[in-house]
Amino acid sequence: MSEFFPIPKPIKLNPHVELEVFQCQDTIFQLSVVAPNAKLESHQHPESQIGMVLSGELELYIKDVIKPLRALQDIHVADANVSHGFVNPLSEAMIGFDLKRITYSFPSEDVVLTLSNNQDKITHLPCQSVKGSWFEIVMMKIPSGYSIPPHQGEQEEIGFILNGKLEIFIENEEQCLEYGQIYYAPSTVLKKGYNSSNQDINLIKILI
């Protein structure tokens, strides 16, 4: 199995929650589908967790407050060993992602962060991004025919797309990425990309 393009393991957490779980060294990345009006009971774990709604809506229950999470706008942050739960308030399924890993950063001041307009440092394309105590999330459109330049950094990077196909090259491996697949680039490895399709591709990358 490729380290850079991990294969997901499907898990049915309960009758209402289905996961596609990717192991990226010491980090767990999950794509999730939560059934309409379903509730995920309050729970806690030793890992810190972040997540985002991709379509639909969720309500986050954490620290005795309820926070609505808007699709492609809000990031929820749950520190290690902090109880949190979710409810899907809509009559349609919620699709989202979350990421869990052991961290040694200071506790997060906010349980919900919101993306804001910015410019991506690598591509110089317009993006929306937000930075937390141990992560950064960047969301942008890769134009048709655009090449993501070769680059490497001190942070690990996990990325996935919401539509179409995007060619990703990491070291000596390459894959034409589709929705439901991810790439994982450890720190300092060389990576690049290319959109050979005739449509803009929505890319979300997480730096940790």
Automatic annotation (TrEMBL):
Cupin type-2 domain residues: 32-94, 139-201
Domain of life: Bacteria
Gene3D superfamilies, sorted: Jelly Rolls
Pfam families: Cupin_2
PANTHER family: H2HPP ISOMERASE
Name this protein carries in UniProt: Cupin domain-containing protein
